[in-house]
Amino acid sequence: MSSNTRPPELAPGVSSARHTAGIRVLLAVAYVVLSHLASDRNDGILATLAVGDIVLIALLRPLLLPRAWAWLVLVACAGVLFALAHSPYALLPLMLVPSTLIGLVAYGFGRTLVHGRVPLITRMLAGLEAIPAPALASDLRDYTRRLTLAWAVLLAVLALLNLVLAAIVVPNGVLAMLGIASPLPVSQTHVSWLGGAANLGIMCGFFLVEFSIRQRRFPGRYRNLLDFMQQMRKLGPEFWRDVMH
User: Fold this and answer.
1) Residue 95 — φ and ψ, nearest 5°?
2) Which residues pair with residue 186 across a beta bridge?
3) DSSP letters along the chain, please?
4) What is the pTM assigned to this prediction?
5) Contact 40/54 with Cβ under 8 angstroms?
6) Are 185 and 172 in contact (CB under 8 A)?
């Protein structure tokens, strides 16, 4: 193949980042399957495998580099999960995963609103525009700051609602394990469906409504939703890793 037709080679860092992202997607799919089966079957082993899957997602990059501390953390988590798998509390960590993850994302948005920091969505827009955040128009800075706050509040509320579900679910909810009768008993199967579908539906609905408002307020920036998603995709995994710090 001639040099004019040879496809461009990816830089090692970009290729590695894409492979890591692909593995994370597969692990995320595995978590969804494992967590639903664990809740549906009240299976402690499947529940601990699902939580272990989350640990792998969180530690994946340092594990692949590799970093000794990450492997030590993985071994320690595996030991704790192995002990939990055959205990009466096996499903408790799984019940707390949704509220914990959503709460961490809410924190990720909220912490960028502290004085002296650039709001998260402002940084994302600046990345799309390929300019420093202070160079954005004032109305865009104001809008993206308010939108960052809106996402932080929405996710914090969802995290709290998921924590309530984890408390009232039976038979392996927080209250049940403490010997307290649930004031509104909900089965784990219902929580599995309700929590997952409701969380996703609310977040997707909020995003779609906001995107529609954004298109009317700032016309001509994106042709449609697909165009916006393609622009976001072009930022690449390295940008996302940097923008979350």
Assistant:
1) -65, -30
2) 169
3) --TTTSPPPPPHHHHHHHHHHHHHHHHHHHHHHHHHHHHHHT-HHHHHHHHHHHHHHHHHHHHHTT-HHHHHHHHHHHHHHHHHHTSTTTTHHHHHHHHHHHHHHHHHHHGGGSTTS--HHHHHHHHHHTS-GGGS-HHHHHHHHHHHHHHHHHHHHHHHHHHHHHHHEETTSHHHHTT---SS-EEHHHHHHHHHHHHHHHHHHHHHHHHHHHHHHSTTS-SSHHHHHHHHHHTHHHHHHHHT-
4) 0.80
5) no
6) no
Q: What angle do CA 122, 125, 128 make, to 5 degrees?
A: 155
| Residue in the structure block whose two tokens are 């998603």 | 229
pLDDT tens for 164-211 read 988 998 877 888 888 888 888 888 777 767 667 788 899 999 999 999
Contacts of 80 (CB under 8 A, 6+ apart): none
Residues 119-149: b if buried by 16+ CB within 10 A, e if exposed = bbbbbbbbbbeeeebeebeeebbebbbebbb
